[in-house]
């Protein structure tokens, strides 16, 4: 007697299950494509019911929407959930639909002069406190900026230094020095900026995607295009009023084979004199400085390597990683050719100043 | 950093933050949309624009919507997006039938929730125009990208159907009803604006510009874990690479003779 009851119960349970699932199952011919990161579903089935509906397909559209939404919700409920402040939250995957960006990728900027120097020497930024104790005012003040701790322009009493003219205005002198420092900083910043922007110009063949270009850019692009033929632009016609491009001649100029005899004689004799003289033409101070700088660099690289091996994850892998790349190539460059290799790292304008300034220091160091 | 690279540096921290927000970055900000009223836009178009404000924010943005109306192109709506402050794609849609938010007397959902998007119809994958339209609409209506979503907070769904050259845009409020199991049964209630749109002219970006805009930075590409593989049974295998062993120095058993 009980057996048929048990069977009946089982069948009843099965029917109940099917009914429950029926409420949320939807039958579709083609599966939908889901992009759960965007809460998106795409239904590829042709909407036949809507097509047959005629003028006002509202009810059919609604039914279609309901079915699709049910499928999307089913998918969403399958995601792993967690409790965040009494709400059940589902963790969404990354959106899979690729959408175009808003702005182009940021380009890597060339290093500023200080950054290059710091990399060379192995200098890393030291962590400093924000506030410094100021004796004069008896309070904690900023290290730099508005109302800073040691502002020498704000002193109310300046002793006249030993060798200075007693009638000179020391306060004005300090303010003047500060203005000069600020101006120099600004100049260097603008120079770094110019260098960075010069690097950013190269784009696809000199042409802009939308065509809004300056006259110079277009001119440059046109010149490059003209020269990119098999005969390097020799047989390209020019428009009637077009002028020849300037600055496109030879880069090196050689003397004619015979011409100025006096000048030639002079240069040959000078050469002989240099070869015969006993004094070395090598600038010893510059050579020693170069050597010392190389040694400094090597030492810095060694130190970096040691500290990398010593520390594990506690150290700072970022700057260390960068420097490893910077260290060996510049060393390799220096080893290649003596002065030639060195010339590359110094910009021509400021190099002159430094060369002049280096000598006295070099003399001191040698001692 | 672009904020520090300008000739005139920002004088306040607030200005600096503002500039940093606007410059190109690896992972970008959420796109904003601007809605523009054309020189001659009639009441229908105006109402559409006002309703679209219900779904989007406006400020300096990369998505735009422009409404106009003239005899040749009645009830015109142009949806577009920009890349690097130049126009990337523009699609012109004509509004055939429009039912506004206020015409449907229902309760509305709070502003700013992320909608569910559904595209129905095989047209959306077949034609290039429709594919771009789908991409553009996803971009427009997507909302901010979030890692988690509150399941009870999924409020409304935007449903686009492509049929016979027309695109039906409907928005429904989501009602979650009890079903026997964990996943609820869905009932829909027509809520928001409903539009019947016709695709008119398109101005799509050239292929290379589109590819340029889709370029993903290397840093954001998912990193593949190397030397790990799985077989069909689910066992994970790893690979270790060893250096060459010097067999003469191998530690073997010593035989005491």
Provide key terms for this protein.
A: 367 residues, mainly alpha, two-stranded antiparallel sheet, B: alpha+beta, 5 helices
Question: Can you describe what's shown?
Answer:
The complex is a heterodimer of chains A (about 375) and B (about 260). In chain A, a hairpin with a 4-residue loop joins strand 1 (about 35) and strand 2 (about 40-45). Chain A contains 11 helices and 6 strands. In chain A, the strands form 3 sheets. A two-stranded antiparallel sheet of chain A has the order 1-2. Chain A has about 375 residues and is mostly helical. Helices cover about 50% and strands about 5% of the residues of chain A. The radius of gyration of chain A is 38 Å and the shape is extended. With about 260 residues, chain B is α+β, with helices and mostly antiparallel strands. Helix content of chain B is about 20%, strand content about 30%. In chain B, the strands form 2 sheets. In chain B, strands 1, 2, 3, 4, 5, 7, 8, 9 and 10 form a 9-stranded mixed beta sheet that branches. Chain B has a two-stranded antiparallel sheet with strand order 11-12. Chain B is extended, with a radius of gyration of 27 Å. Chain B starts with 12 loop residues before the first helix and ends in a 19-residue tail after the last strand. Classes of the chains: A mainly alpha (about 375), B alpha+beta (about 260). Chains A and B meet through helix 1, strand 2, helix 3, strand 3 and strand 4 of A and strand 3, strand 4, strand 5, helix 4 and strand 6 of B.
